Amino acid sequence: MKHLFFIAFINSFFLSNLFSEDIDNSFITKLEYGAMLYANPRGIGCVSCHKKGNKSVIIAKYKEINKKTKKLEEKVIIAPAINKVSFEVFLEKMNADKTESKIMPTYFLTDDELKSLYHYIKNINKK
Ligand code: HEC
User: Is the pLDDT of residue 5 over 60?
Assistant: First the structure.
């Protein structure tokens, strides 16, 4: 009888542990959802400019006449690495009406989408 009681105790311990764990039973994980948004954020995918997101990427090169010197100058447009930005900078950029460069598009993502996307970006290097 003592043994039975002990077994029941152990069992309930394991069971409660199993169920109290933060089980992610959503259809896809936050990381997978973020990855999906990175590729397809209802607009041009972040991936088309930022590539993997862990390095700056030259997205265009062009020549422009410098109005002062009248010389042709080579210019580059760079999409910066984004895997180390703070959540504040990320949010600011994602909620801007117009980005500084006017090259990065504006997006209309919900808070949940932004959180998942940020979660993905922060984990780009860790895979
Ligand atoms: C058409 C190219 C393009 C696309 C698409 C694009 N970006 Fe950008 N992004 C840029 C450029 C260029 C900059 C730097 C200039 C600026 O901030 O406007 C930038 C800057 C950023 C920054 C700020 C980095 C810093 O250090 O300040 C973040 C964060 C960012 N992008 C995230 C994203 C995310 C997330 C997406 C997709 C939802 C995305 N970008 C899509 C071109 C792009």
Answer: no
